[in-house]
Amino acid sequence: MNVSELLVNSVPETGAASNPGNAGAIPRGVMVDIRKALDDIQTPGSFSAIGGLAEHRFADRLGLHVEGVGDIAMPLQEEQARQLIAQCRQAPYGKGSEAPVDTSVRNTWELDASQLEFRSAAWAKTLDHCVEFTAKSLGISSPIVAELYKMLIYEKGAMFKAHTDNTSTEKIPGMFGTLVICLPLPHTGGDLVVRHRGLQKTLQTSVTQPSVLCWYSDVHHEVLPVTSGYRWVLTYNLAISPDLVRPTAALLQPDTGKLQQSLGRWLEHVGTQSEESEKAKRDVPHLYYLLAHEYSEASIALRALKTTDLARLQHDEDDEDEDGPGARHELDHVYETSVSIKKLVDLDGSLLRSALDIDDHDLLDNLISDCVDPLKGVDDRNEEYQGYMGNSGSTATHWYRTAATVLVPRSSTEKFLTRDLDSRGAQSMLRYYAAKCLDPKSAQRQPAEEYMHRLASRAWEPDSRGWSKCSPDVGTVIEVLKAAIASGGYDLFNNVVAWAGTDAVLARTFTLVRNLALAGRLDVSEVKKSMLDSLSKRHVANWSDYLELLCPSEKESSADLDEMAAEIVNQAVKRLEGDLKSGILQENDGFAFMLMIQRRQDYDLFKTCVLPDLEASTSTAPFVLGALQVLDTCTSDSKSFPQAETLEIVKSLSKSVISTMDITKLRTKQTLQAEERRTHGHKTPPTQLAQVIDPATLAELFQISFEHAWDDLLMALSLKIAAQAPSILASEFNFLWIPFLEHLIGFLHSSPTTTTTPPSPRYKQLTLSLLESYLTSSVGREPAPSASLTLPAVHCSSGACSDCPGLNGFLESPDRRTARFQVGKARRTHLQRVLGSLGGMVTLATEQGGRSETLVVTKVGGKSQRHRRATRLEDLDEEGGLRWVIGEEEYERILGMGFLRRGGEVLGAAVTAGVAGVKRSAEEAGMGGY
Ligand SMILES: O=C(O)CCC(=O)C(=O)O
Ligand SMILES: [Fe+2]
């Protein structure tokens, strides 16, 4: 297996002759010519360079003498530095005696060449050495003259802003560049930044010490501020004979005429491929060309290319008209028996695609190389070795990697970049285009938006069956939306919201719209429609969340955001009647819906448009109960809802819900889900129209009436539940009715009146009916318990003990598993001691809470339904609440479950008996006839 990096580019086209008859591979001759033309491009040199100098070239070998200071000792001492500065003047910016001093542009001390003298003969040799370095680095073959110009001293804070050394009048005839010798003196900062044609380098005089630097006069350069020490340099003007053509960085251009010719022939050949031919449809014309140097995967980009590779690629870049992003790219390729592109980047190094498999043939057909093995000469970078593995022998895997450029005709670039498009590829390209749109400096926003639109449609637009090719990744979709807004592409925005607006996308889109609208960077009216359309495909329950994202309550908003929010609410209201009729609305919807109305503070809207619908649909209890929860809070803390009137509405709605709802139809999400799992995902029709409710919501209905002391409603509700309890589905106790009792007992038991007033008999009746029905439906069928939980009673020596009789009742009960004793420490110790006689038959634990700790006694063993139910009831009594509501006696009766076995009745009879029991008790409690 091999790994290789490849680099590839796009080629501008001029009108090529069309010859549809000639379809076939690229003529070998054309490929050889292109390769030769590329191979022949050699760059003569760079536009700037830095080289280190040996310390021994300085010291006494400099022989520097400065007018007014005398001989300068090396290394330079602080005192002489001060003396030197005293002789200097502030360096002006520009040339000549009139040049202005502007310390915000240039801030450094200077001495003229005429004030300096080098008395050591060795110095001339050093200077020659520096000139030689310059000639080689800048690629200059004619003799060079270096003329001392200034000595500069940069103190802490000194700098020279970006400039070129080209001036209208030449400092010396034939001048083409600058040579700087940085003398040995430690400093930090003060590095020289050079820029030419988009490439930037930092020549670090702070690191390479002492050093020689050189650059062409047309190169932009800047001395960064010195942060400590002194930067001490000599500057020289560089010139060649004025008769010769002046070398400049701009002329570093290689000769690319031959390359242009051969590429032209290739494009002509490409043009002969009929657009209609099968081959043309399948293939994207492109050529791979191996680069001369090795590049690290992370750094590969045009600016990182080494001179010769750079010259080869720049040829194409120079000829490129502004024809859109992705017009040229580098490609990083991985071969793996078959080949893959590891990383495809553009000339800036921005990622286009990664891990892109390509055909062996694709590589071999399109590689312009003179050797058959494209990886010949490429070092293998990695080896993976596996030792002896059974009879499969040992294996070694070699990875080879090389960098290459890809040449692609401009008209085929888009096709090339979106070859073999999978979700990951689409994601990567869309992010690339989005970045182009979001870059304010990019001249390519317009074409990028177009590419993005086409690609988004290809990737995300659902087909006629509603399937899209690629799954939308939230982060990518949001980048695309941002880019669409930045480039004013509202069509793109609206389409993407329609195509890829998943719940998560939509949530982030609402936040995005809010932020951009508040920043004044988005016209809300342009995006409103698509966002409302996406909402309309969703359950009303989700709308209020989106609304909250768009206009968080109490937070800053704007007129257009407010308007959009109002429209969302109006649309929800408009749909309400229809949705209620269809029976799809549940408790969450009611809650969320009312939350939206509450947030809008629009009582009129509520009264005229919502209330009639609520009143007409009280049989859809969950929705109305959900809405009631919110409406009830409006009675106390809403500015726009009139208190008394709202309270009346809450009461009358509660009343009609109580009288119309059928509690046997109430279900919970959990049971419906469990049913769906049993039926393997097939929703049975009643499931869809089931009234799904949360036990807490049902308890809330109770609580609202309780808190407002609406006694008639409490009675009606209790009676209704008690009456319908025997018909409740067995499956609904676990998730709905027992948790409901938990809530009910919880708030009754903790209400402030608990200690003074005994619980109303109607709660006792309601609770008993539910518990009897629960046990009848779940335990009633079970044969008499085989594993009894009965344990021997304990012996208590104290005649007056108030705890042991209770303890023994528990121990001797065949069904009870757990008992709790909330008693003081001495009594707990007594209980623990007497229980010692039972050995491992019970476990003891203490619970914190209340006035003293509670001793919890649990029997070991027993797994029947009966035992499990008993445990559940004991849990229900955790705080003593169940016993408080139904009384000790009933508690013992219910836990004993004796009523289930009355005369060995079968289930049906037990149910009847249960109903009869309820009626009798209701009459006794004085609720008859209600
Ligand atoms: O101090 C340097 O290294 C460069 C100075 C410079 O750019 C100039 O004198 O024009
Ligand atoms: Fe300069």
From TrEMBL:
<dbReference type="GO" id="GO:0005506">
    <property type="term" value="F:iron ion binding"/>
</dbReference>
<feature type="domain" description="Fe2OG dioxygenase">
    <location>
        <begin position="139"/>
        <end position="240"/>
    </location>
</feature>
<dbReference type="GO" id="GO:0031418">
    <property type="term" value="F:L-ascorbic acid binding"/>
</dbReference>
<dbReference type="Pfam" id="PF13640">
    <property type="entry name" value="2OG-FeII_Oxy_3"/>
</dbReference>
<keyword id="KW-0560">Oxidoreductase</keyword>
<dbReference type="GO" id="GO:0016705">
    <property type="term" value="F:oxidoreductase activity, acting on paired donors, with incorporation or reduction of molecular oxygen"/>
</dbReference>
<keyword id="KW-0479">Metal-binding</keyword>
<dbReference type="GO" id="GO:0051213">
    <property type="term" value="F:dioxygenase activity"/>
</dbReference>
<keyword id="KW-0223">Dioxygenase</keyword>
<keyword id="KW-0408">Iron</keyword>
<dbReference type="InterPro" id="IPR006620">
    <property type="entry name" value="Pro_4_hyd_alph"/>
</dbReference>
<dbReference type="InterPro" id="IPR044862">
    <property type="entry name" value="Pro_4_hyd_alph_FE2OG_OXY"/>
</dbReference>
<dbReference type="InterPro" id="IPR005123">
    <property type="entry name" value="Oxoglu/Fe-dep_dioxygenase_dom"/>
</dbReference>
<protein>
    <recommendedName>
        <fullName>Fe2OG dioxygenase domain-containing protein</fullName>
    </recommendedName>
</protein>
